[in-house]
Design a protein that fits this description.
single chain; alpha+beta; Alpha-D-Glucose-1,6-Bisphosphate, Chain A, domain 4; seven-stranded antiparallel beta sheet; 3 helices
């Protein structure tokens, strides 16, 4: 197993513009989502294209990630990410307006280059990571925006 496809969809009872404002503010993501982001620094920005260096928290470790991200206002972002532990992936965080608020459609296609992660990847990344991400990001967005 070299690739894992993660997919989730959730509703936030808030306008898309408010969700976008938080999710596109990369340098402040550690403030909003301390369980997943330790630091993010924009190294270069050309229009809506960002090169980002990040320290993210995964499975109790801090992992260094390089992100090539394209903002898609007001719909979200797409990002190609490479980590120092042997993973790379294509991430999409896209939103649409619904009568209930904002529907978030999230996908992350992860390629596992690390042999250890190939062995345990389905459980660690496929099962645990999405549940943790939903709790650390989606539930936190609801806390912030659904007041």
């Amino acid at each position: 197993m070299k690739k894992i496809y993660l997919k989730g969809s959730w509703i936030i009872k808030a306008p898309r513009g408010k969700v976008y404002k938080i999710m596109s503010d990369f340098e402040n993501l550690p403030k909003y989502f301390p369980a997943v982001a330790q630091s993010l620094h924009i190294l270069k920005q050309e229009g809506n294209n960002l090169s980002i260096e990040a320290e993210v928290k995964t499975f109790g470790w801090v992992i260094y990630v390089r992100m090539e991200t394209q903002l898609r206002p007001p719909f979200g972002y797409v990002s190609d990410n490479k980590s120092d532990i042997g993973t790379s992936g294509h991430e999409e965080f896209l939103m649409e307006e619904t009568p209930e608020g904002t529907k978030i459609n999230y996908t992350y296609n992860v390629e596992l280059k690390n042999q250890f992660l190939r062995i345990f990847g389905r459980f660690l990344i496929g099962w645990y990571a999405m549940r943790f991400w939903r709790h650390a990001v989606i539930d936190r967005l609801k806390e912030i925006l659904e007041k």
